[in-house]
Write a structure and sequence with these properties.
Number of helices: 5
Largest sheet: 4 strands, antiparallel
Number of strands: 4
CATH superfamily of the largest domain: Lrp/AsnC effector binding domain/regulation of amino acid metabolism (RAM) domain
CATH topology of the largest domain: Alpha-Beta Plaits
Structural class: alpha+beta
Strand content: 15-25%
CATH class of the largest domain: Alpha Beta
Helix content: 25-40%
Radius of gyration: 20 Å
Order of helices and strands: HHHEHEEHE
Number of domains: 2
């Protein structure tokens, strides 16, 4: 999709603060309020803006442990990969799931309260799955950067 400078300014401003009113956003990107409203609607309708969310501080809600988990499957056929994705998709603690290559088949970003909660999740999602060959988890000791913005 082609973006002009106004679209880029709108997207960058919304990624920094999506709670702005249309008037505030229009002023920030130097366009009229009707133009801004029309542009934002178009960006939503075309799926460029996938959704707008609130970012929650994990430590403030008791989710103190972040794990980056590598998963290797025994069988990498497309339907078996899709089965694994369907297994982890409804799990609230799995924040992100990526098919990757080379190396493991999947990398998951997991946010849980503590190590017992991680063990319960690992037992529930991985230990009982015949197609899961290997699980390797890395536990975050400090998060020095976390961004959600994509430069457009």
């Amino acid at each position: 999709m082609d973006f002009d400078e106004i679209d880029r300014r709108i997207l960058n401003a919304l990624q920094k603060d999506a709670s702005q009113t249309n008037a505030e956003l229009a002023a920030a990107v130097h366009v009229s309020a009707p133009t801004c409203l029309r542009r934002v609607k178009h960006l939503r309708d075309t799926g460029v803006i996938a959704r707008e969310v609130a970012l929650v501080a994990p430590e403030k809600v008791g989710a103190h442990l972040t794990a980056v988990v590598e998963i290797s499957l025994d069988i990498q056929a497309a339907e078996r990969m899709a089965e694994f994705e369907a297994l982890v998709a409804p799990e609230p603690a799995v924040l992100q799931c990526y098919r990757v290559s080379p190396g493991p088949d999947f990398v998951l970003i997991v946010q849980v309260a503590d190590m017992p909660a991680y063990h319960a999740l690992a037992h529930r999602l991985f230990a009982g799955q015949a197609n899961v060959r290997n699980v390797k988890a890395y536990f975050s000791t400090f998060r020095s950067k976390f961004e959600t913005s994509i430069v457009v």
